[in-house]
Amino acid sequence: MFNYTSFHDVFPTEIQLPYDRRLQHEIEAHRKNADDVLFIDRVMRALGIPKAKVYPPKTEHALRQLHQQICGAGMSMHHKFSLLYYVLLDFDDASKEVFVSESFASLSGMPANYQLFMKGLWHMDREEYSRAIEYVAHPSLDPDFADDIIIALIKQAPDQDYTLALSYFYSVQPILKSPVALELLFDAMAHTNVTQALLYSRTHPQHTREQLFRRWISCVLNNSGGDDLPSRTNELVFMPFDSLEETWFEEYLTVGEGRTLKRAKDTLLIRKIACDRFSDVAKVRPSGQWAGILEGIKGGTAGQTD
Length: 306
Prior knowledge:
Keywords: Nucleus. By secondary structure, the protein is mostly helical. Helices cover 64% and strands 0% of the residues. It folds into four domains: 1-136, no CATH class; 142-192, no CATH class; 201-271, no CATH class; 276-305. The N and C termini lie far apart (94 Å).
């Protein structure tokens, strides 16, 4: 009868320890890329195994010690199974033929949602992010470690392509707890979809919403360049703001930190034109590329305002 506390019931004698120097080096490289913390490190810490870097076990003796540590820890049975299952995924990957993790899950009665989540974290730790999303974004799962997942997906995004991070967020809809995760996610949104970022800012309480709104303006103006500049800037200035956003917009670009942005004056000017505030526009001293337009507006509004 299967007994998870028996080492050879979990790790059959016929399978070979996968942690050769190559795999050890790969795991440590992935750990370094992840700011020195893998997801398995986070899970173990959260479940009461605080000792740093007990994974990967480099020898059979170390694996036995880890097995005993998991079995003796004060955590639920399913959590113990989850940690053992994660380790067994390394054995699967090394053999390519014998899938001991599946046998373990079946014999132990490990719930499917625990398998999904740990397999997703395993792929996250291997930097196989597309595969990871297939598991960690599954609708049957709670959004555990959502902040860390989003931070990892954004930091590791190739060429500022935040598709995976945003796909995960929109699928799972987690409530982010970390300011770092929120800021990274919001910047990714603003870089990818100006309108969606503004709508997301409106889902927060007023203080946070105001901070995000200012960050939104900064992100759009700083990240706009080349052929992308006109469309992104136009999208920003022609957005239908409410009264609060209108006030924040003008304050940020005139007296706030945004006044130092390279395109602050031009953006504010276009906004005034877009909102038919021609009396305000007429007060602007004409210069640069806008001189002709401003002179035309002044001529058109001459005699219409006192």
